[in-house]
Amino acid sequence: MTVPADLNVKSSRKRRSIVDDAGDYDDYSMGLSEIFAALESLKQDLTMLKEPMGTNDNPARSCKDLWLAHPEFPNGNYFIDPNGGCAKDAIQVQCNLEKEGITCIQPQTRKFKPNKFKKSKVGDWFSEDPAKGFKFNYGVSDPQLKFLRLLSATAEQKFTYNCVNSIGWFDEANSNHDKALTLLGWNDESISYKANYDKFESRLKVIKDECSDGSSNGHVQLELNTSDVDLLPFKDYRSGDFGEKNQKHGFVLGEVCFSG
């Protein structure tokens, strides 16, 4: 029996329509799958922001944020990501969660034993000595430090000057502070007794001064606790009394801690 030509055409069109509809359905299903996957990923991201765990892949913005999410967590080392971007640049810090989340960062070089600086003169920064000097480094990028400061209300850090026959702060013989050491803030402000007395003296605390006689070995320990968080961490210092044959100086650099 011969099938009419127009019937063949209709049948062919119908088959093509079924195939096309099936293809459209597959595309629709794939589109829905991608949407659901994106929503699930967004849900996970929001959960991580709401409940950071302080891990490398789920860091908090700061120890304060970690404490707010998990006040039961113990003190210890955790990961934070202050700039809130990709977790790949998260940094490891020490969190004091017993004090509502204080974020502390250790310097990469903590100690430098007393030395003679034959290629430097009074007025030079420690980092300017061509043989021994360097800027203080904390292993944290400037963007991360910047955002950590924005999240913080106060910051504090200790600096200890190790003296060998060198005045570090108060000059007992002359009853002045003309030879007091100077610290360099992260924002390049000089912090010293003489130059910034009105601005810094109320915050720059002298914990110990064993160098005032200028003829013994000892330490000058200073602490800066400030709401001007741009000053910290310290990145350099300069001695006001060295260069003689029997004089040496070095330092112990403390951790810098930020409080929200």
Main traits of this protein?
alpha+beta; Transcription Regulator spoIIAA; 2 domains; 8-stranded antiparallel sheet; 3-stranded antiparallel sheet; 4 helices; 11 strands
Give a quick rundown of the structure.
By secondary structure, the protein is an alpha+beta fold.
Structural write-up:
The chain is of the alpha+beta class. It has 2 domains: 63-103, Transcription Regulator spoIIAA, CATH 3.30.750; 106-259, Sandwich (Jelly Rolls), CATH 2.60.120. Helices cover 25% and strands 26% of the residues. The chain has 4 helices and 11 strands; from the N terminus they run ααββββαβββαββββ. It has helices at residues 5-50, 63-69, 142-150, 197-200, and strands spanning 76-80, 91-96, 102-105, 111-115, 154-164, 182-184, 190-192, 204-209, 217-226, 236-238, 248-259. The strands form 2 sheets. Strands 1, 2, 3, 4, 5, 8, 9 and 11 form an 8-stranded antiparallel sheet that branches. It has a 3-stranded antiparallel sheet with strand order 7-6-10, with no helix packed on it. The longest helix is centred in the first third of the chain and has 46 residues, at 5-50. The chain is elongated, with a radius of gyration of 31 Å. The mean pLDDT is 87.
